[in-house]
Amino acid sequence: MPDICKKFIVEGHVQGVGFRYHTCHEGLKLNTTGYAKNQPDGTVEVMVCGRPTDVDALERWLMTGPRTAHVQRVVREPCEYQLYRSFKIL
After folding, report:
1. Contact at 8 Å (CB) between 58 and 26?
2. Residue ranges of the Acylphosphatase-like domain (predicted)?
3. Which residues are catalytic?
4. Which of the ends of the chain has fewer CB neighbours closer than 10 A, N or C?
5. Dihedral through CA 13, CA 44, CA 27, CA 8, nearest 10?
6. Kind of pairing between the strands at 87-89 and 4-13
């Protein structure tokens, strides 16, 4: 099955709690690529690319995030496939 990409906006108490670091760690564990990036409105934007099962696994993880975070909502945004070499914190 070909690789896919999904883009998420994670809302809640997700900045200043290591959310991007933990997301990057989980993404690398799942062999996905992409990035986690703080947004000015207090959300975190996450782009995830890889095998559909791995991308879905990271999506499920984003619903809770690390213990230090309080995720209120995860919104999926449409995106086209992009090639990333690794998972990065932006």
Report:
1. yes
2. 5-90
3. 20, 38
4. N
5. 110
6. unpaired
Answer with the residue of higher pLDDT: 80 or 36: 36
- Token pair for 33: 């690529």
The two structure tokens encoding residue 17: 């709690």
Q: Which two tokens stand for residue 41?
A: 């409105």
The reported pTM is 0.94
Q: Which two tokens stand for residue 70?
A: 């309080």
CA–CA distance, 36 with 45 (Å, rounded to integer): 6
Could you tell me where the DSSP H helices lie in the chain? 19-29, 52-62
Evaluate whether 70 touches 12 at the Cβ level (below 8 Å): yes
Binned at pLDDT 50, 70 and 90, residue 5 comes out as: very high
Specify whether the CB–CB gap between 27 and 48 falls below 8 A. Answer: yes
